[in-house]
Model the fold of this input.
Amino acid sequence: MAKKKFAGARNKKAKQNARKKTPVRVSTKGQANKVLFAASEVYPLIKTGGLADVACFLPMALRDLGYDIRIVLPAYRAVLASVHDVKVYSEMLVPDTDIRYRLLETTLPDSDVPVYLVDIPALYDRPGSPYLAEDGKDWLDNAERFGLFGRVIKLISLNQAGLNWSPALLHCNDWHTGLAAALLAQESERPAIIFAIHNLAYQGIFPYTMFDSLELADKFRSSDSLEFYGNLSFIKGGLVYADKLITVSPAYAKEIMTPAYGHGLDGLLRHRSECLSGILNGVDYRLWDPRYDPMIEQHYWLNDLHGKKINKRSLQQQVGLQEDDNAVLLAHISRLSEQKGIDLILDGLAGLLQEQQVQFVVLGTGDARYEQLLQAAAGNFAGRMAVVLDYNEVLAHRIQAGADIFLMPSRYEPCGLTQLYSLRYGTIPIVRKTGGLTDTVVDTSVATLGNQTATGFQFHDATTRDFLDAAHRAITMYRSCQSCWKQIMRTAMQQEFSWETSARQYAGEYTDVISMNFT
Ligand code: ADP
Done:
């Protein structure tokens, strides 16, 4: 059996010390490929951000590597409306509560990855997003919703949910699954636990009274457990109790151990630094590749970059920009939040658009303040700036195919997917040197042009001045040296950030953590 024993670890200090011991490999024959993957959103069933992409494509890639990986997700109304052929397991009681749940089993569309839906209608069968009500505010009972989700994840992990399936590893994702890690870690025989951090800023913080409401034992109420500045922190469940912490880029793994990026948790993460590493997310190149993309006007590739001009013309027409082959077309797609540096773009707009033949298209929905400021700016630069306040997958593809430069001045960026798409489409990214942007974009310099590794433009500080310096460097290069630009495009387009590469690295971590034995 691939269960681990934490014998003798009676208090937290002992457990922490236990974790520091050198792992001893043990046999996990027959069980080691069974992984339960817990997430609060999974593409295409339900998506609010990059986490949903990871929770779809990573399990699929791991399945291809031979893992018996199964996903568990709350049975939100939107998910129930989109799935068919559901197998229903009998209703069970969550131990020590009067809450009943059912497990429904389906598969990820276009795959054979099983998905268990935790069906508790009172908690999940409602309109709105997984986290927010229709008024845009957090659901008031999010602690109960994801607390119960955590309890059911634990039951499945221990093969106590009637599935007759016993995973060797629980792979948790973000705060919504933090309590599962904390609860499962208390068991003397249990699977290994990996906790993945997709965005440390979101922590699942609730009033201290929720310790009572969720009937969490006293041992969880201290600052070396789930207490966080007088509150209950779900994410600490993962950060304190998982056997291994993985975040979505090597650079972000280092950053979150510093006060500037640690969101108050850098001390804990430094304490757990030996267990923390970064693995980049991947791209599904079946969906995002200018050679095959069915959503774009003209396919193109390395030796036929002219196709990009056709896409540019088509995009200019579609969004109401002047049709001008010689304009430099800048683009931005995001949730329009401060994290994405949209304020730096807004501050720098006049400086960018005062130059002749510079255009800008932005696609996004998010912070109402930024939406209004963008619309007002578009009014001042008619024909040269287009704003589409929408979530629109097709337009996102057409922008990647038609624009010349992609702006991504994020204040922090755990991994980032949009710059990975930009690279593949030869839409040269201008990025702040942070997190996954550091790891995936190579700044253009005399040296990197010379050795043909340049793929974009980086800047250091989250200031309008640094951002504009990088933008002007890029625009000048575009104008003054088309052969250099085409070289950068070709290098960018050939970068590979496939899910298979990520999955192989996760598989390595799985093997290590499953074979650890702390007794
Ligand atoms: P995050 O997860 O922080 O939002 P990522 O860059 O990791 O940022 O992932 C964002 C994902 O959402 C990408 O797939 C991007 O194309 C998509 N996206 C964001 N905003 C929009 C939008 N308005 N329309 C279409 N797709 C969008």
About this structure: The chain has two domains: 14-279, 306-496. Residues 464-480 form the longest helix (17 residues).
